[in-house]
Amino acid sequence: MRMGFKKTLTMAKLSLSLSLFYFTVFSLLLSLSTSFDPENPSVRRILVILDDASLKSSHSIFFNSLQSRGYNLDFKLSDDRNIALQRYGRYLYDSLILFSPSADSIGDGSLKLKDVMDFVDSGHDLILAANANASDFVRNVASECGADFEDATAAVVIDHTSYSVSEIDGDHSLIASDTFIKSDVIFGRENIEAPVLFRGIGHSVNAASSLVLKVLSASPAAYSANPNSKLSKPPVLTGTSISLVSVVQARNNARVLISGSLDMFSDRFFRSSVEKAGSTYKYKKSGNEQFLMELSKWILHERGHLKAVNIRHHRLGETNEPSIYRINDDLEFSVEIYEWSGTRWEPYVADDVQVQFYMMSPYVLKTLSNDKKGLYYTSFKVPDVYGVFQFKVEYQRLVIQAYLCQNRNLIPVRPFKHDEYERFIPVAFPYYGGSFSMMAAFFIFSILYLYHK
Q1: For the chain, give me the number of helices (H) and strands (E)?
Q2: Do 320 and 277 share a domain, yes or no?
Q3: What is the DSSP letter of 59?
Q4: pLDDT tens figures, 293-350
Q5: What are phi and psi of 254, to 5 degrees?
Q6: Kind of pairing between the strands at 125-129 and 95-99
Q7: How far apart are CA 298 and CA 288, in angstroms?
Q8: Which has the least CB within 10 A, 8, 21, 423, 444?
Q9: Could you give the CA distance from residue 266 to residue 183 in angstroms, rounded to a whole number?
Q10: Could you tell me the CA-to-CA distances from 142 to 117, 120, 298 in Å, in that order?
Q11: What is the pTM (predicted TM-score) of this model?
């Protein structure tokens, strides 16, 4: 009787262990299945790190908008020691939202600066918001992405000409800015009519870098300073050089949003009315919601995300892709390019897409023709250089995905075989004539020399 009870208990433990094992495997497979899929960019997991749990409710409009668009948000506090971006060599999330500007460390040091930058370097997206109390950690992350926040203590952006008249503090630090970047790819086709409310810290970007762009700038009269103290020296950041919100389009297609204001994401700023100084018109609602919703669509690849498929190349007049080309062969190349609209892939139409046929450097650079349905094509002659080549399509345009495709297959190009050369080369006819004339002259000279008396 006792032996039967022990056997039953052992079987129950075994059954429980197997159930836990299958549950763990299922959870792992489920997490992997919801990871970033280039074929369906909107189905993604986002880690949201907050300074305070109250931000989840005070910024609920922004978070609810992301969730309504199909994103799975995982909220964690900045002091949570279980914060991790990857496990067993796999990234657990596809995007990261850092709404913890005052946190000196994330997860008590479990998430380091290197981890965040490796996350971006691996092609993932980042949304970072700071304020006047931004920690060194947040400043260093922004600096690594190409944006340098104001170093002065408690410095904020002040503007005495483009402030919101609803500001009651009198320091004109609540800015109403409408200096947006002109880009339908980022903001869509609808114009943002109302100014965007901003209260926070400004930053500068490297003007020589084509990867960092200012999407919301300060007015020429703005400057960065501490509103509670007198200016002892000229401000470091002034005028339109102050960027309020910037974006980064990395070469690996990762996208980064850097904002100097956490308040601009709040429900209060979303619902607030705006009356810009010097204007007689009062907007019932600020442009923050439209501005950030449209901007987040670009950051999260709902807009401006391209893919290249069906790369084909073959000799002119043929259909099969050869294993090797010969120099001076006539070659045809084609590729299909589509853009993600947020719900489906649509043909991308442009007249400036180019293909490179390169070895160590491009030997052929051709602009592709298109049929207005996503198919791009061209033809060219294989260069008179033998070696190993590749096809590459790079589309480096403003806020459009910079890297499209690269044919990973190596394409050997060989010289002519000995029996493939022309028997008589037309350009060598003068040399042929010189050789035969020399032979004839030598023959005549020999006859004359031998038989002349």
Answers
A1: 9, 26
A2: no
A3: T
A4: 999 999 998 888 888 888 899 999 888 999 899 999 999 999 999 888 777 888 988 8
A5: -70, 150
A6: parallel
A7: 15
A8: 423
A9: 24
A10: 10, 12, 19
A11: 0.78
